[in-house]
Structures are given as C-alpha cells and as structure tokens.
Amino acid sequence: MYNKKFCLIVWLCLVFLMAKSADAIVINEIMYNPDGTDTGREWIELYNNEDFSVDISEWKLYENDVNHGLTVSQGDLIIPCNEYAVITDNADSFLLDYPDFNKTLIDTTFSLGNLGELICIKDNSLTLVDCVDYLPSWGADGNSKSLERKNPDQESNEDNWAESISEKGTPGSENSVSSISSEPNPTAEPKTISIYVNVIGQKPSINNISISPDYYNTEGFQVMPNAGENKEITISVVVGDDDSIDNIVSVTTTINSNEIELLRKETISEYEAIYEGKANMSFYDAPGTYTIEVKTIDSSSSEEIKTSEFEYLELLAVDINFDTLNFDEITTGTNKSLDGSSGLTIQNIGNLVSDLEISGTDLTTGEEIINISNLQYQFSASSFVPLLNNPAIADINLIYGESSYENMNLKLHIPEETKIGSYSGSITITAIAD
Fold it and tell me: For residues 4 and 8, what is the distance between their CA atoms, to the nearest angstrom?
C-alpha cells in the first residue's frame, strides 16, 4: 500500500511515509489478560526475524519502568533464526496451560497492565531493540486470546497487531493472523532425476515448470504486482527428450493469450535441458489465479503440452501526481481554490478498487493557528468537505485500470481575524480497500 503525506508551508509539498526497518528480535505476541486470573498466566513471545542466531542472555524486559532480568527455564537463550522464545511470569503455570510447548522458556517477574502499557526488549547495553505500547482496544482483553503481530517486518503499531484467531494464542508457532512469515525468497532450483531409455520416436516431455519471482516461500507460485509498472515474470521449464535434447525444435508458453518463445538456458544432460522466457503482467491485471500453457515440439513433430498456475496477488496503491500546491498570497476573509484541471489528480496504481482516508493538521506559524477545517476538498461532483484532524473516509470508488485517475479540488478559506504570516500544516492521504 502506498501512503502519502503533503505539507502546507504557504504551499503543500508531497512526502512519502516510509516504514521502519524491523529489528532482529521483535515482540511477536502478548497474553496480557487471559480469561480468569492473570497471576502466573501472562506471557510475551519473542521472534528472531533475522537469518542468524541472537544471544539474549544479558538482555532485559522493560516493563512498568523496570528492567527485568531474564532467567532461562527451558531451552537456550541463544535464539536461532526464525525461532521463538516466550517470557513468562511463572514458567510452571505456563507449561500447565501449554504442555506441548518445546521452545525456549524464560522466567522473570512482571505484571502486564490490563489497561495497556509500554513494554520493550533491551539488549545487554540497555539499548531499545523493540517496543509495543498496546491498548485493550486492540483486542484479546480477557477472552483467552492473545495479541498477535501480523508482520514482523512492519512497525509495531496498532495496524500491525490483531487479536489471535486461535484460542489461547500461538506461543512458539507462527501467528494465526500472520500476513507474511518471512521475506520473500526466490524459488529453489528444481532437482531432477534423468531417466535414460533408448526408445526411438518417443514424444518430448515437460518435467517441471516454475515461475519466479515467487513472493511467498510456500506451495505454488505467488506473484506480487509492481505499483504502477509492469511485473516481469520468468517461466523456467525443464524439457526432456529420450532420443536427444537436440531434437527439440520449439518450446513456447502462452499466458493471457500471448505466446512467448522459451530459449534453451542450460543443458542438464544429453536428454534434458532448461528453457526460459519472460512475460509481463500489468499492475492493473485483476488479482486471482492465472494459467500458463507450455508446449514443446520435437523434430518428428511430436508435441507435449502441460499447464501450471500462479496467483497474482492483490495490491492496494495510489499515486498523487503532484508534488507542489501553491496557494500564493491570500487576503484575510477570502478563499483560494486549486482544482483537478490544474493537475491535482490521484491515480490508482494497484489492482483493487480504492477509497481514501484523509486527515490534516491545523495550519500554524508556530504561534497563530488556522483550523484545518478551513481547507476543504472535493472529488468529482460531490460537495466540498472540510478536512478534519481525525481521519475521514472519502468514498471515491477509484477503479483499477491502465489510466484510472480522480481529480481532487481544494478550497482554502482565510478567516477575517487571521494574523498575517506564513502558515504550514499537513494533509495525510491513505489508500484503503473499497
């Protein structure tokens, strides 16, 4: 998703909101208010989000303004990559609730606030590694469920946490609300076994079809679109011919009714080779399952046809194609408008129908203030709507397509009593699913 913010400093300048990089060890799950008594049944799960082991033996749990030491009760305080550890206020009670738990279990003294609080993990130099400032409004408040982090690569804010689907949470396992368990990895090179048979005239074979880049390292192939740009995918096919791989005269693939020639990239043996070609998917191609057909023909005109599928993933993204909004000089008691005909447009650069969430901050010189509600916005034929400090939804139903734009009109009113000066503020625009 693309989130964009622009600031009014007599003009409004576009700024991208960037996500913070995740640390190696993250707070991944919290059981702060289990059903019934809390004593001895609260716990915090840590996750090693890197490709190397991390020693946390001298680390601290920061809670209620205290740095709590960590004592291992089960397992080891060196956490392997992509593995979990659980910090509990009573290891024996925890194992009664979770008798099958076999990961690292850490015992310390703490009591999590049912009304929410800030908890952090600090390293051996007491440097903050990761923090969560949770609230009961996030969920898991006294119903035997935990708070789970959706994505360990994203910020630890409310949008990246949710109440667990699983009863009693998922300590030591992948979170039930996980959106992505790790960074995308390329598909591993297929391993093949060559079978040599001296049979003349056998038709060619298609032994393997793979598609990359594969967004998730899971079963099947998943392709993530590029916002506003074509996505190039590589189709790699292992073709065999029991007479000789040199008998193969043509390997092609068809995707979206387009036929693409695959060229020999690597000879595996006298009877087998890898053929490869590239295809483009548009950013606005609808999400869903796509089928590719691969056909190979040998010198005797024998042919083999096989199909494979990949999932084209959903992408929610918009682009604001202006980077400066200049209201110039405005007299008190007057209005100034900027409209879409002068280039204020928002483009859908994903493959989902999009609405917008809009909010703003008051305009200020540092001492004087113009309430942000004096700046109004309008889309299409709708009425002008004042900006608010709290996010409001603009139901614009911006469809996806090659050139899907929506004009945005702005009107700024300067009240009579406004002091002369240069004012600045900001507007935040976020794409949300329709």
Answer: 14
